[in-house]
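testing teh design pipeline on a random one, pls ignore if ur not involved
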């Protein structure tokens, strides 16, 4: 009996201090989760069917594909199926779907289907151009023409945008039609990310810069709601990105140094910095002279040592490591502020200072 009491006391004294939302593991929550997974599976089945039918139709009507709205609708439906099946993300979906819709929109515009609204505006614009001595092919840079000319151009664009919104609804993209109307800036942002993922997929260095900045911003957002574990993890990932950027900036030198590291530290793929670990990136940057010491009136700091500190803080994201080294302890605000200080030092020395010296 006494042993049972001890076990019960121990169980209560070691229960999690963090509490899970009582609804997160409820029967309803599990049913919703399974319904969502079923929906994804269903769309995965539809994807191949849609692709097969559409590829045949594209081949048969390649030259006139965008003269057939029904085919464009099917193509957009296939893109939507890819999105719902998790084969593409939101930014890719927006890009691919909008591109298809824009091609149909352009076909209608060029074939005169919007002339009822646009023709009077075009004539008024042409009249102003003639009155001001502009010849065919000549035009004013945006914002430099007469006031009436600028207003007419804006009207022309508004008409096109309104027709495009209606077209989006027509082809089943009501979600994007609402975004185009209510938040066009967000639609443009999503489209551009999707476009770059397709057109500039191999521009690793440029993509890395964007990734690092996103990590910085996400870390700040996480810290603002006291999600310090997430914030420190993101800053650690950002610091890893900074070192990777430095190695990509002088790739030949970095790869030579990586190949000369001791066996235990040498990367498996010494010619590809994107595959190196955080630890390996630190070692390469240190040997290259890119992790230079910093001196203040108080003391001298090893940037390599600081990078390792942040690496260790980032590695607390691994639950086994955290359970071994810091059980029950939470990452707190001052940990985040320390991580942010180290990150700022690495940003100012590894990226800004050493790259400036290379020029």
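output:
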């Amino acid at each position: 009996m006494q042993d049972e009491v001890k076990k019960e006391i121990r169980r209560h004294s070691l229960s999690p201090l963090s509490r899970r939302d009582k609804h997160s593991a409820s029967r309803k929550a599990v049913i919703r989760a399974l319904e969502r997974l079923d929906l994804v599976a269903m769309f995965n089945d539809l994807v191949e069917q849609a692709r097969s039918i559409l590829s045949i139709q594209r081949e048969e009507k390649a030259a006139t594909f965008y003269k057939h709205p029904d085919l464009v609708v099917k193509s957009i439906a296939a893109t939507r199926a890819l999105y719902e099946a998790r084969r593409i993300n939101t930014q890719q979906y927006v890009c691919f779907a909008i591109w298809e819709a824009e091609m149909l929109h352009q076909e209608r515009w060029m074939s005169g289907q919007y002339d009822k609204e646009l023709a009077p505006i075009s004539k008024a614009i042409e009249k102003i151009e003639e009155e001001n001595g502009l010849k065919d092919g000549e035009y004013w840079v945006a914002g430099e023409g007469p006031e009436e000319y600028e207003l007419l151009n804006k009207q022309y664009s508004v008409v096109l945008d309104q027709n495009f919104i209606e077209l989006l609804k027509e082809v089943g993209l009501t979600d994007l039609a609402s975004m185009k109307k209510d938040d066009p800036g967000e639609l443009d942002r999503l489209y551009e990310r999707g476009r770059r993922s397709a057109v500039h997929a191999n521009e690793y260095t440029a993509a890395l810069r964007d990734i690092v900045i996103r990590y910085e911003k996400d870390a700040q957002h996480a810290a603002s709601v006291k999600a310090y574990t997430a914030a420190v993890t993101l800053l650690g990932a950002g610091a890893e990105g900074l070192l990777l950027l430095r190695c990509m900036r002088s790739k030949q030198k970095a790869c030579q140094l990586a190949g000369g590291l001791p066996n235990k530290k040498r990367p498996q793929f010494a010619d590809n910095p994107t595959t190196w670990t955080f630890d390996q990136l630190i070692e390469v940057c240190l040997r290259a002279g890119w992790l230079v010491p910093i001196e203040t009136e108080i003391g001298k700091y090893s940037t390599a040592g600081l990078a390792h500190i942040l690496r260790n803080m980032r590695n607390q994201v691994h639950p086994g490591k955290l359970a071994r080294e810091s059980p029950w302890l939470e990452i707190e605000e001052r940990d985040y502020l320390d991580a942010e200080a180290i990150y700022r030092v690495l940003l100012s020395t590894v990226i800004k200072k050493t790259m400036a010296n290379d020029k």
